[in-house]
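ingest -> fold -> write
write: protein_1
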Amino acid sequence: MAYTCGAFAVIVSGCALAFMMAMSRRLVYVALVLSIGVSFAWGTIGIGISPKSFVPITGIIALMLTVGYMFVVWDRIPFASANLTTALTGVRENLGLIGDWGELEGGRECAVVHFLLLDVS
């Protein structure tokens, strides 16, 4: 079971990294607009399903806060997008190091276990 979960995590993480690398310049804009859309859907679906409950009120409050946040940070998004693009470019250029580091780390752990458990000096 642990191997299945680990493999699934590696696949999802790799897909998320590939998606971020493909959309690095527009990812912050897309995330902000998606957040506004989800808040709007939360409020409207809440009104449709149970208009007298707390859900529509929280959806409308989340929508107002998200739109307010959008007005505050919209002019700062290009700087954040440039930082994200720079970081992802560094990751893209050094993708081979991820596998090498894991192999080196595993080798070091094996050596430590070997010396500790077998008392080899």
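write: protein_2
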Amino acid sequence: MSSVTSESLKEKAVWLLERMMESDPVWAQYPELKEKIEGVKGLEDAVAIATEHCANTKDPKWVGRLYGGGSEASYLAEMIVSFYNKNVHTYVAGPLFTTAEHAIINKVLGYVGWDPAISAGIFFPGGSYCNLVSYICARHRRDPDVKQRGITNPMKMITSIYSHYSVDKSAIMMGLGLDSVIKIDFEATSVEDFEKIVVENNVFCLNSTFGTTSYGNLESVKKFDEVMKKHGVWHHIDACVGACALFSNKYRNLTSELATADSITVDCHKLLNITMQCSCVLVKEGKLLNECSTVTAPYLFHKYGNSVDHSQRSFQCGRKADGFKLWFCDAVDDLDKQATMVYDRAADFHKILAGDERFNHIYADSPTHICFRVRGKAEIDYERAVEGLRRRGLYIEYYIDFFRLVPVNESFGEEQLRGVLDEIYDVVMKEC
């Protein structure tokens, strides 16, 4: 085991950064990569294979995911977090990181329109985990005795047919089971039918999505508000994608419905282009975060700091200082510019697609996603198409029968879009 010295670390860090920035990664299938990894030994070999096969998320041809290459400020924040290697389970373990998390949570609560004196939030590793904790808060409000006695009163939750699969995963982890997740089409479901479902199934929570993964559409359940209030149904908004607009002065008006929710999930490592991971959950009735998870642990939680010990509102102990990353980026970078850029470019790209006769432009009202099909071919093998595109260094995804791209990286402008469209059309027409 090598020890860390300042000179050694500085030398290796500069060398590694240069290698990564100069690399030109290539796509490899699992069997080939597995064989290569098994033979790696030593620093040179390990760095060589990493720089050869890690897809460059900063490249303009990286357009298939909901995240990009990360901003410079977030790299610096990541370095600080990793170098000091602090835990944020208690205040005394990481005073600065804990204070920074409190500060940025309060700022985001203000963007939503919630009072930080009443509402609360916390950073967790990923939006799926944040969603899970929201549903646990919802169940706790409906039946707080579950925390002590366990589940004895069956209850169900409602979500959209377009929701993220983490809703199903959460139902499994909570012991509710997949049968407890009722999936409906919000637009096609009447208020009367919705209330019938709620009453007949002891529904405790409704999950809606503000920026769906595949289409980027903003689901509205405003018509169900009175029914939810009447029957005490918790409303959670999975805003992992769409909450980026909170940070844009120009587009924050799109987020007005978030204030009506009981809880919200925000993924800042997606469209805000902060390094993985940077996810937080916001809860309007903040005390529920503590109530549903707090237990006694005298060896860890002492009298000093209990009011700001984040692990009292968390189901995990060890927790990385992801909140510090957002605080740091907010202090030194222009998050408004990044958030606004995503929405502005998406609007521009929609116009380009609409005028390109080679493609069938779909879901044109999505504020963030660019979805389209290639015209001129009756059937397309999309799996083969994206495989061929990866071999050309272009990373894009498809959903059932259409391509989808999201402009997260600043380097991906109109010129790059037109180049990507040319490559997609060429591969589809020649190889699929």
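write: annotation protein_2
The two ends are 50 Å apart (CA to CA).
The CA atoms of residues 113 and 273 lie 24 Å apart.
pipeline exit 0
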